Amino acid sequence: MTIGEVMAILRPEFDDITISKIRFLEEQGLVEPGRTAAGYRKFSSDDVDRLRYVLCAQRDHYLPLKVIRENLEALDRGLEPAEQPGAAPRVPEIAVAAGVPAADRFDGHAAGLRLTRGELLRESGVESELLDALEGFGVLSPAPGGPWYDGEALEVLRAAASLAAHGIEARHLRMFRTAADREVALAEQVAAPLHRGGRSGSAESAARADQVAREIAAACLRLHTALVAGALGRATR
User: Which residue range(s) make up the domain with 50?
Assistant: First the structure.
């Protein structure tokens, strides 16, 4: 969308919106529209939603740009903005799919989270020594491409803490990491031909391959859960 089209969308809700104001918000880094080869701004629907959030925060809550920028940064990392200025952002429950079986949680919410080390420790309630040990044994690590941890890291840390309460140390969990890596390799091996089967680099083939890999991973988790439950059931008879 052009800046004029964005104005037409937002004006019914914000009668004081102007092109100058949109450009000012862009200068402040609150929205970053794309550019055409000729240098004209091109706004996506996400850009419009972002502008709507900023304008609502200013009009309805009188938030300064600094706080709005912090809230947007939290949203970009999959977090919920703090209810009060200066408070820490929260991890939404849906992001870690609380109460949902692991085999049914391949929806991308957890992977979309980006937590700092401090946020990871705060949300998990775990001491840094356990995180250090898990990283030392290769059980857990920051997400590729930056010093961030995703929602799965949060769940791994919580599970490790529960096991540690029963005397199971981080070094004992290395076998889970090895097994998980093997399952991922199996899923990628099956999905790889789908990448090659479609047009080279096509979005459709990539999406189909990703979906197949997720389905295989979920099936592996169900198989693992069933095998463990069955073995425990036989052991207690």
Answer: 3-76
DSSP string, 62-109: ---HHHHHHHHHHHHTTPBPPSSTTSPPB--HHHHTTTS-GGG--SSH
Tell me the β-bridge partners of 80: 90
CA end-to-end span of the chain: 66
Distance of CA 58 to the CA centre of its chain: 27
- For position 28, which CATH number holds? 1.10.1660.10
- CA-closest candidate to residue 91, choices 72, 78, 108, 100: 78
Question: In this structure, are 158 and 226 located in the same domain?
Answer: yes
Contacts of 48 (CB under 8 A, 6+ apart): 1, 6, 9, 10
Could you say which DSSP state residue 142 is in?
A: P
Look at the alpha carbons of 31, 32, 36, 41 in this order and tell me if their dihedral is positive or negative: positive
- In this predicted model, what pLDDT tens digit does every residue of 139-167 receive, in sequence order? 999 988 778 998 889 999 999 999 999 99
d(CA 44, CA 183): 37
Separation of alpha carbons 133 and 116, rounded Å: 17
187-199 pLDDT, tens digit each: 888 888 876 765 5
68/137 same-domain check: no
pTM score: 0.71
Neighbour count for residue 62 (Cβ, 10 Å): 8
